[in-house]
Amino acid sequence: MAAHIAEKKGTFLEEVIEATPGGERLVHCIQCGSCGGSCPSGAEMQYTPRTLIAMIGANDRDAVLAANTMWACVSCYFCTSRCPQNIPITDIIYTLKRMSIAEKRYHDTDAPALAKTFTDFVDRYGRSFEFGLATGYHLLKRPISMMKMGPMGLQMFTRGRMALRPTKIRQIEQLQAIINKAKELSAK
User: Fold this and answer.
1) Which of 12, 83, 85, 139 is the most exposed, having the fewest neighbouring CB atoms within 10 Å of its CB?
2) What is the pTM of this model?
3) Any residues with CB less than 8 A from the CB of 122 and at least 6 apart, and which?
C-alpha cells in the first residue's frame, strides 16, 4: 500500500498529508485494520479509519468528506496508539473534519455543532469538558440515548475520568494566545 500511495502527487492524499502534523506517516499505512478494530465508535462510522485511508489514497475526496466517520470519532486516540506504523490517525480525522466543515460537505448531521461546542470548551478551559459536552448534546438532540449512556457515564465518573464541573488548565492565557494566533492566520 505504501508504495502505491507514495506515487500519488498533487492529490487529495497530498493535501491531507500537508494539512496534518505528522501526516507524512500516512503513506506507510499497511491496511492492517488495527485502527478500526480498536475504535469504540467503529459501529457508528460509515467507513472505518482504515477504509478512509484507502479512500484518501484513491483520491475519493467527495465520499471521504461527506462521510460521518469524522463526526463519530470520539478522539480517544486508540487508533493512533495502536497503529504499528505510528500514523497520527486521530489527527488525520481532525484534518478531514476541518476540510468537511470548510467545504460544507457534511450533511444531515448536528456534528459540526457538537464540534463547535467541543472547541468552545477547549478555547475557554484549555481542555474538553466531557460531562457538559455529552449532557448538552444528548439532552438537546438525543434524550433517549442519554439514558443508554448513563452506565458508561457513571463508570467514567467513578474512575475519575469525567468531572462534573469544568476546570481550566494552568496558564490558560498562553493557550488562548496560541489559539487566537491560529485563528488570525487561518483567516488570511
Assistant:
1) 139
2) 0.62
3) 128, 179
